[in-house]
Amino acid sequence: MVTEVTEPRPVARSTPPDYLHDGRGIWSWLFTLDHKRIGVMYLVGILTSLLLGGVFALLIRTHLAIPALVHQPGQATSTAGSAAVVVGPSQPVPANTSTGQDAAAQMVAESEAATAASTVQPTPPRYLLTPKEYNRAFTLHGAIMIFLVIIPGIPAALGNFVLPLMLGAKDVAFPRLNLMSFHLWLIGLVFFLVVLFTGGLDTGWTFYTPYSTTTDTRVTTAVVGAFILGFSSIFTGINFIATVHFLRPRGMSWFRMPLFVWSLYATAIIQVLATPVLGITLLLIALEKNLGLGIFDPKLGGDPVLFQHFFWFYSHPAVYIMILPGMGIISELISTFSRKHIFGYRFIAFSSVAIAILGFLVWGHHMFTSGQSRLASMIFSALTFSVSIPSAIKVFNWLATMYKGRISLQTPMCYALAFILLFGIGGLTGLFLGALATDVHLHDTYFVVAHFHYVMFGGTLVAFLGGLHYWWPKMTGKMYNDTLGRLGALLIFLGLNLTFFPQFVLGSRGMPRRYFDYSSLLDRHPEFAGLNLMSTAGAYLTAIGLIVAAVCLLGSLWWGRKAPPNPWGSASLEWRCPSPPPKENFLSPPVITPAFDPYDLDQVVYDPETQGYWVRQTAIT
Amino acid sequence: MTMATHSVEVPEQHHPTGEHDHHAGEHPAYLAHHFDSMAQQFAAGKLGMWIFLVTEILFFGGLFCAYAVYRANHPEVFVYAHHFLDKNLGALNTAILIFSSFTMAWAVRAAQLGQQQTLRLCLITTLLCAGAFLGVKYVEYRQKWEHGLLWAGWYHPHVTNAEHHGDAAPKPSSPATAPTAVQATTSGQTPEPTTAATAGEHSEYPGEPRLAGVFFSIYFCMTGLHALHVVGGMIAITWLLIRAFQGVFGPEYYGPVDYVGLYWHLVDMIWIYLFPLLYLIH
Amino acid sequence: MTSQQVNQAHHAGGHVVPGHVLVAVFIALLVLTALTVAATWVDLGPGNLFVAIGIATVKAALVALFFMHLRYDHPFYGLVFTLAILFLALFLGLTLVDVRQTFPEVQAALENPV
């Protein structure tokens, strides 16, 4: 203790501040180069967007419950309201089974007929939303969820945080590019908020021409926003590939990396190959709409089906951007909470890359009824079956991992188990849709809606929540109440099934998607009423589950106990640094011996003092 | 039983962030804190730029796909419309870009060898070539604009006066004065190509096909997007030039020159394909 | 590639392309450009397109191998570049297959509007 203070009292040489407290003030966050802070900011933004997209979902489901509630059997049917794509006749039109004949001329004729027809149609009944509002609601729900939540989702919010830690690196390869990715995401968000507040968008998230190039809603703003978000995604992909190639420390070979890293790497490959094609497609929509470019307009020599080729060349691989990181998380969770080495490490690793590559070969399966040629449809249908193989390999490997393990049903594991069932259902129903003959009947029905919600919500979002609960202690330094966490997981699981399983039935019995009103179908299909009501009830149950999960996690920030470095007993590197980590990640660079194995759980020992685990240093032979 | 040691991080002497005294003597000024060596940093940057080029290839690829589709389906449109592109200007631009690629590659070489003067000279030359390229493009675009040879929605070919240059004036099939969304000849219901009245000295291009505007849609999209990338390249090269004047580059640190060079060569490569596909359709 | 391999491959300075190589490639590119223009004076029917693309590909290869250094770099970078081209070919190929298949039907519909 100095009596005469000539310089500040020396601070005891102890651990450096953690990344949350290393630098204060909003600018230190908004212009940080620390991948952990960027990850946290992404997380906040993405969860907020999830809330926004979820509000639209509840709006839609509430709206769709009303025809079921008000319909009297035998009542004179009200005319079906307009769907997003202009349809001529007033009754539901079966999926277009034309094989290309008259495709272009039909488009032209139909759009003119529909304009005429809509003027003689009586006003549609008003439920919660008008037809225009309904179109905007499902469009914005889809666009926000896909472009702002699910595609950035796991790589941006969790990957950014965890990837360098798992490798034992100090940061990603290009921290400034990482920051730019985040800023671009924010700008994209702003564009979509502008769309929201200046009239919305009613084309469906798929922007199909010719409607998207002729409607007067905020298409240009939305495509510019999506374009910017695309670049955010591309830059993240570039960063992750370079990080995995060059920022692995000595000893961290490819096959000593955790499987989450493999999945992020495979995802990054898709991001850099597919997203630019979306970029050019969006640019062409904007040019077509504003300058009359004519590439997609039959009257000017264009081809609307070409738009769909362009669009789906990105958007199919995009769904693998969504699911691959989720599968990576599940590999981590299943292994850790079965207290067992992951089964078939190399198979799982290679299957991630296989999914990435095969995912590029199948985009035409979204276009079976669009006027695509028979030959192309058959090729795409056959190729589609190939993608299910690596996915199945993963599922079997996870189950084999659990077999004879010591399973611990903590919250992350509950989400992982939910994932396996929900993704299983979602993936299997994809087979119905990939088969050309059945897809012709199921296309544009609720079967499709149920399928993709099972894989995107039941798959990706559930994996996201599982990962969030898994790495929460590492990110925040707090443990949450496990009982509350498990309750949230259970409610979400039940809610998802209640929401989307009835939709498989609805779809297979013919209820079309994107319809404002289905009351005209209720006389022939009275079961649609009950099924829609179940689905709406499920939506609210899911919302409650999400609220419980949110309360659980946010509550831990105030009331949670301090987290040990390794609360769950995993052997991968991100658990070897303090919770939360310091800015430089590791207090001293980790030494990776030849015996290092991120799934070697025999080396993990429980320490009752910290209520955490530590990893035995294996002897070097 | 071997003595098990905690492998949880043990706090130890910690270097305050930002200092890397352990590299004292040979510490390069431009080594970022998360890299262990300049070689690692260079390799990472190079891979990063190559992946970015991959995205650019796929980005332009969409337009090449549109080109392929329309040329396959409407070859008569392409054969007709390419008459309006000046082969000589196109070849000149090709030569300019190839030369600029050469000077850019030489700039990288100069940086690697520490030849500061040569480096600056090469960068300046590259910039000038890029500017010349854009100048030629401007001349071409202006000619198109004056003759109404724009993308499909604004396609209204007409002659300004009795000019008869290398890019001969188009035959006026419908002397529209204002851009219309659909030409009179392309009502969408009459597929026969209109054989517009020959007007004396313009008879060497008979039979403007319906949908001729499609060619120009593709032309402007591809060359316009390419020109935007040239502008982007110029900005990057200017930034390099500023740093080159500060004497920043040398054998130890030439990464940015190499990366911008890679980008510039891709821009050249795309033009190498655009030139025959747009200008040299037989 | 691991960081160790990187260190071995890129010692200070790295590989410098010899000046005469750069000049030779430049001249070759100009010659090929002249060649491709000259080829338009010869009528080969559909062959013209393939000749033009072929020459362009040779030029692109020269730029990639020498100006972009792929000839002297670790083969990994060449693989990255090739992968991009392959995926582009996949996109173009399958789309063209479909569009060429449907084109006759579309033409017929346009000529005989319902």
Keywords summarizing the entry:
heterotrimer, A: mainly alpha, Cytochrome C Oxidase, Chain A, two-stranded antiparallel sheet, 1% strand, disordered N terminus, C: 114 residues, mainly alpha
Radius of gyration of chain B: 27 Å
* Span between termini of chain B: 83 Å
- CATH secondary-structure class of chain B: Mainly Alpha
Summing up helix and strand content along with how strands pair, one would put the structural category of chain C as mainly alpha
What is the mean predicted local confidence, pLDDT of chain B?
77
Query: Helicity level of chain C, as a percent range?
Result: over 70%
The percentage of residues in β strands of chain B lies in under 5%
CA radius of gyration of chain C: 21 Å
Helix content of chain B: 55-70%
CATH fold assignment of chain B: Four Helix Bundle (Hemerythrin (Met), subunit A)
- Number of beta-strand segments of chain C: 0
In the predicted model, the low-confidence regions of chain C spanning at least 5 consecutive residues are 6-13
Tell me the number of structural domains of chain B.
1
Q: Please, what is the average pLDDT of chain C?
A: 84
The CATH architecture category of chain B equals Up-down Bundle
* Pattern of helices and strands of chain C: HHHH
Strand percent estimate of chain C: under 5%
Give the end-to-end Cα distance of chain C, rounded to a whole number of Å: 61 Å
Can you give a write-up of this model?
The complex is a heterotrimer of chains A (621), B (282) and C (114). With 621 residues, chain A is mostly helical. Chain A has one domain (32-67, 131-559): Cytochrome c oxidase-like, subunit I domain (Cytochrome C Oxidase, Chain A). Chain A is built from 17 helices and 2 strands. In chain A, strands 1-2 form a two-stranded antiparallel ribbon. In chain A, strand 1 and strand 2 form a beta hairpin. Mean pLDDT of chain A is 88; it is low at 1-13 and 76-102. Chain B has one domain (50-279): Cytochrome c oxidase, subunit III, four-helix bundle (Four Helix Bundle (Hemerythrin (Met), subunit A)). Chain B has 6 helices and no strands. Chain B has helices at 38-73, 75-81, 87-113, 116-146, 212-245, 255-279. In chain C, 75% of the residues lie in helices and 0% in strands. In chain C, helix 2 packs antiparallel against helix 3 (47-67). The longest helix of chain C is centred in the last third of the chain and has 37 residues, at 75-111. Chains in contact: A-B, A-C, B-C. Chains B and C meet through helix 1, helix 3 and helix 6 of B and helix 1, helix 2, helix 3 and helix 4 of C.
